[in-house]
Specification:
With 313 residues, this protein is mainly α. The protein has helices spanning 36-53, 67-92, 95-99, 112-124, 135-164, 170-183, 195-219, 223-242, 248-279, 281-290, 295-303, 307-312. The two termini are 37 Å apart.
Length: 313
């Protein structure tokens, strides 16, 4: 049977094409076959640990404002989380399926959303007051946001996508992965963030997740979403740590950039949905034609051969 294009995106069998040579009496332990539960596990564990560590008295708005904060809140915890998740992916044997899409989307116009997000990241750099903090602050911030990018993308656009693709069509994979990534940011409310800003961040993160999904589908690699995610966080944290609240001109420019960013993210949501919906088209066609009886059945019915056994009963 000819497989549709979407079928070949991920490994869908639990056994290789040729029998593996194993020692009699010993079961082949890895790579572990993809499953929904394993794909969801890192997100659930991370949410549980974050909820356990968070305190309402935490000063979330001060995250990354000083060298000490960057080290304690980004470099150390995110570095440990990234290394731990990399070890898990290695143990599962999921590196290729979690980081590479063998089939890229051919809708090149969707590339507009990730490119415009990159433009926003570049435009925000001059708004950072580079002399307000020592040079090693920005070096540590770079390391910290890279750890964030590796961990969150490998979790949300890596393992989670692999697990969801075992149970859902691609449109469902895209939608649920974005929603879960957004809801994950509700945990910020437990760390001292306000409810209003947290809800805005949830919507923003879900929309941003669609653009990051697009980056993976366009390039076929998880590396681009990792770098784009890290670049965005660098600009956001770097500006908030050095912002002069009395500089009205700079604040006005940042506001315009923010409005433009929400427009770009809306484009990313539309483009991500279109890409995922288009991927499911062979599946929908296969279902449609599966319900159509073969032409021979119509011929037999026209001659009355199909009605004969019924009357004989």
């Amino acid at each position: 049977m000819v497989r549709p294009a979407w079928y070949n995106r991920e490994v869908t069998t639990t056994a290789p094409t040729t029998p593996a040579k194993t020692t009699p009496g010993r079961r082949r332990r890895w790579p572990v076959p993809p499953s929904l539960l394993i794909g969801l596990a890192p997100l659930v564990v991370f949410a549980a640990i974050s909820a356990w560590r968070s305190r309402p008295s935490d000063d979330y708005p001060a995250l990354g404002q000083t060298v000490d904060s960057v080290v304690r809140a980004l470099v150390i915890p995110e570095g440990i989380a990234a290394v731990a998740l990399c070890l898990v992916v290695t143990a599962l044997g999921w590196w290729r399926i979690a980081t590479v899409d063998r089939t890229r989307t051919t809708l090149r116009w969707t590339m507009t959303a990730p490119i415009l997000i990159l433009v926003v990241c570049v435009v925000r750099l001059p708004l950072i007051e580079w002399t307000a903090l020592p040079a090693h602050y920005f070096l540590l911030l770079t390391v910290g946001v890279l750890f964030v990018g590796v961990f969150e993308e490998l979790m949300a656009r890596g393992m989670l996508l692999v697990g969801l693709r075992r149970r859902l069509p691609e449109f469902g994979v895209w939608a649920l992965s974005c929603v879960l990534f957004g809801l994950l940011h509700l945990l910020n409310a437990l760390a001292g963030a306000g409810i209003g800003p947290t809800l805005i961040q949830v919507v923003f993160a879900a929309s941003f997740g669609s653009t990051l999904y697009l980056a993976r589908r366009l390039t076929g690699s998880l590396l681009v979403p990792v770098l784009l995610h890290a670049f965005w966080d660098f600009g956001s944290i770097g500006y908030s740590a050095t912002a002069d609240v009395h500089d009205q001109g700079r604040l006005a420019v940042l506001g315009l950039i923010g409005l433009f960013s929400f427009g770009v993210l809306a484009l990313g949501v539309v483009a991500g949905g279109v890409v995922a919906w288009r991927d499911d088209r062979p599946r929908r066609l296969e279902r449609r034609w599966r319900s159509v009886p073969p032409m021979a059945a119509f011929a037999l019915e026209a001659r009355g051969d199909l009605a004969a056994p019924a009357s004989a009963r």
